[in-house]
Please model this.
Amino acid sequence: MNKAATEYPKNSRDQERLAALEADNQRLIGYIRAKTNHLLQIMGTQPLQYDELDDKTLLDLDPIGIIADSFTQILDFLNQNVNELQRAKDELEAIFDATGVGISIIDRDFNVQRCNEKQRQLLVDPNRQEIIGHNCFEIYCARESPGLGCPAMETFATGRPALVRDVKKKNKYFNVITTPFAKNEDGTVSQVIEVALDITDKKQAEPAEEQQRQSYLQEKNKLATVIESLSEGLLVINPEGQVTTCNRAAVEITGCSEATIRQQPLARLFPGLAELLADGREPAGAEFPYHHPAGEERLFSADFNRMLSPDGDFVGRVITFRDITVEKKKSQLFFRAEKLAAIGQLSAGVAHELNTPLASILGFARLLLKDDNLTAAQQERLEIIAEQTQRSSTIIKALLSFARKSHHTGRTREACDLNVIIQRAIPLLTTDLEKRRIELVQDLQPLAPVIADPGELEQVIINLVINGMQAIGQDGRIRISTNAREQKVLLVVADNGPGIPTESRPRLFDPFYSTKPVGEGTGLGLSICAGIIGELGGTIEAADAREGGAALQVTLPAEPTEALQAEHAT
Amino acid sequence: MSSSLSPQTIELDILGQVCPACLLVVLKEINQRRREINSGQTRLLIRTDHRNATVTVPESVRKMGYRVDVAKVKTYYQIVVDRQL
Model:
């Protein structure tokens, strides 16, 4: 109030009243200033300065009103924040309770601060009402103090997370993990979060899994044993053509170590086989040559199977194989024996039919030759007829002889010394050898006896030497050698003639097969030899002689010496 | 609301004034323009050369739920009061 503008009352009563009002006014103004300053202090600013703001301006400005309005806004903003916080808290609690793992917050005194619904279900006695504020060891572990292996104790002590596996409670299994949640000013952990994971299902499935694993291992071992015990070689090839697995038989048959087989691609191990598979064909089986590390050429037979994944993708091949070298040779021999028998039967019939007319031709030719009235030309022609008929007769005899071998007739079996038989046969050949100026060299070693027909063996020797003589023609050398080898007797007749062309070798022992000029040889000599030797359980093979010609090598099973001695003793 | 994209700036010049007048003037202005500022139509740009105001004004205004930016411009301070993002 402006004192200057005040009109003083006239009487003293009025003056007193006025003074009282003035005092009230000052008191109220003072009150307003004090409260305004109080509020300004709350707002964090300076108190009012009287010289800045006189009473009238103070009332006009209405600082209490201003601050009250501002407080309204502050309160609104706070309410808004409180609501948002409450919502967030509700959400967090919902998540806390809905989560599939048990969670609790434990303080340093091992009091449970918070515990979610899952933790209560998993670890707390259902009859228990109060949890918060109680000791965790009492509620969760039914103990009177925290025990050994308590993860919370470890986390409080170390400040690091701790895990305890396979905790069994309420017939369930848990993994319990504690992590630091809050820390004191000095850095020590004041609260931990404990999480309990229910692993009962996993734990219960373990025996079944173990059983399944054992059964799988058992099957695997069984399969491995089967593979290892196979007499056939087995290879597993990956899609890139690399050998990944092989069995014991594969090692034995190939003559390579397991490491060697598994380190190389199929194309290097079996080049012949890889070629068959390379061009996209999928044969079920094949025969292919194999060069054995020992230096021999072998013949293998293999079967293939494609391996497919459950989705039908090509994941490799299984190859089984065996060595058929001996088997193949035997079957070839068998085939030849069959052929010889057939030819033998046929020849016998034909030879018998031809013998009679040939005898007539020869007889009449000789009769005519006795006629004295023949001209020289006629006589010469008749001599040719007689000679050629004679020759035909020789062929027929040879044929009949061949046929008889095939029919197992008129044969003896006795212990013979091959060297003695050679000595007996040579004189029969001497004339022819001398005529051809062929030297016969003998290299005869002491031998065990062989069980055979001596006549047949003699024929074999004569046939082989004649074969050599015909190959040489004139001037040369034939070497007959014998040798004992293990339980066998070896005879080699080698010449220094032109040798046997490779292409002729497979047919060398076939009847009527001859590489000699027409008129020399019947084509039956070697096939008769092969027939006789085969019957005796021996073999006959052609090889290259050291002197460049042909060598025919006969192997015969030897009779044990004791048996011979026993025979002589009787 | 296009106003939210480019609010109108109301300038309040309190150069030469000191506390607590500074704060009271600003609070009064904000109280009167509460709706405009909260709707994003308006923002308040205050110019003051009283250093204390750069502390008292932002403290109070933030508690009321507004966004406050303070910048020094040449010889005075510029305080911008805007609604929360």
In short: The longest strand of chain B covers residues 66-73. The helical segments of chain B are 2-5, 21-32, 34-39, 53-63. The beta strands of chain B are 8-13, 42-48, 66-73, 76-83.
